[in-house]
């Protein structure tokens, strides 16, 4: 990375500075790779949890215990997960886990933080399992790959661009708050037009956040964690993976609202 030569100064002169910059560059690549690996494992856990819950919740056999919902028959487990008040517990549990991880990350051992991230990913998968009841499986797979390609391009842009994206942060967070408020209002209005607007704006906001977060994580390492190392850098990699994971999941669900084919 050429910007390291400009921004990283060594007290031992230019030759040592080039060596230090090369070391930081190698460390940065390893750090970002850890973040993407954590995020990828989290997404895999989410997908497996969502698919597992769906398969256990739906049956083709109309047994006396099965409950018909539309075209599907739900097992007692499926009724508890998708119809009973228990569904709210699993819908809100991931949000609670985000606050737990974010608030306690500096006091947690990296291994504990990893376990909490895996648990969060599984809970998110359980909460997302209902998409298999709403959208065709083909469209879910298609939107997932569209999301992956979009996310990859945006994250690559955030990593490689020389443009300072810092100023975007406050604007994007304002947009995020607006999306949350509009989504809460639409729970009562059930307006398809408002849902469409929220989905479109949400895609733009989380696209921007993906690039912004990637550049932020890169700069955090260069100007902080490169010299810290150890548990501090490992915890930072886990929180970085959580940030990018949330961007990916939100992009996926919003694009699914726009592009998914309903079953």
Automatic annotation (TrEMBL):
Q: Which organism is it from?
A: Bradyrhizobium neotropicale
Q: How does it sit in the membrane?
A: Multi-pass membrane protein
Which residue ranges traverse the bilayer? 35-57, 77-103, 115-134, 140-159, 171-190, 196-215, 236-259
Q: Does the keyword Membrane apply?
A: yes
Identification of the protein by name: Bax inhibitor-1/YccA family protein
Q: Does the keyword Membrane apply?
A: yes
The subcellular location is: Membrane
Q: Name one GO cellular component term.
A: plasma membrane
* Assigned keywords, A-Z: Membrane, Transmembrane, Transmembrane helix
Task: Tell me its family.
Answer: Belongs to the BI1 family.
**Organism classification:** Bacteria, Pseudomonadati, Pseudomonadota, Alphaproteobacteria, Hyphomicrobiales
The record's annotation in InterPro entries points to: Bax_inhibitor_1-related
Predominant location category: membrane
């Amino acid at each position: 990375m050429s910007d390291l030569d400009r921004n990283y100064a060594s007290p031992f002169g230019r030759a040592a500075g080039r060596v230090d910059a090369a070391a930081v560059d190698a460390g940065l690549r390893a750090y970002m790779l850890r973040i993407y690996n954590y995020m990828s494992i989290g997404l895999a856990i989410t997908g497996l949890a969502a698919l597992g819950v769906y398969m256990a919740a739906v049956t083709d056999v109309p047994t006396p215990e099965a409950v018909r919902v539309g075209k599907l028959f739900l097992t007692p487990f499926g009724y508890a997960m998708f119809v009973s008040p228990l569904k709210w517990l699993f819908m809100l549990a991931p949000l609670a886990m985000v606050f737990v991880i974010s608030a306690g990350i500096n006091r947690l051992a990296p291994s504990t933080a990893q376990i909490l991230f895996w648990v969060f990913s599984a809970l998110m998968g359980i909460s997302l399992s209902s998409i298999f009841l709403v959208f065709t499986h083909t469209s879910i797979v298609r939107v997932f790959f569209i999301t992956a390609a979009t996310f990859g391009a945006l994250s690559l842009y955030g990593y490689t661009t020389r443009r300072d994206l810092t100023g975007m942060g406050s604007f994007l967070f304002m947009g995020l708050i607006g999306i949350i408020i509009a989504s809460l209002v639409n729970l009562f209005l059930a307006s398809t037009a408002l849902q469409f607007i929220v989905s479109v704006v949400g895609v733009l906001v989380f696209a921007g956040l993906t690039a912004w977060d990637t550049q932020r994580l890169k700069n955090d390492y260069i100007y902080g964690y490169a010299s810290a190392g150890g548990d501090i850098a490992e915890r930072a990699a886990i929180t970085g993976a959580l940030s990018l994971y949330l961007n990916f999941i939100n992009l996926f669900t919003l694009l699914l609202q726009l592009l998914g084919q309903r079953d």
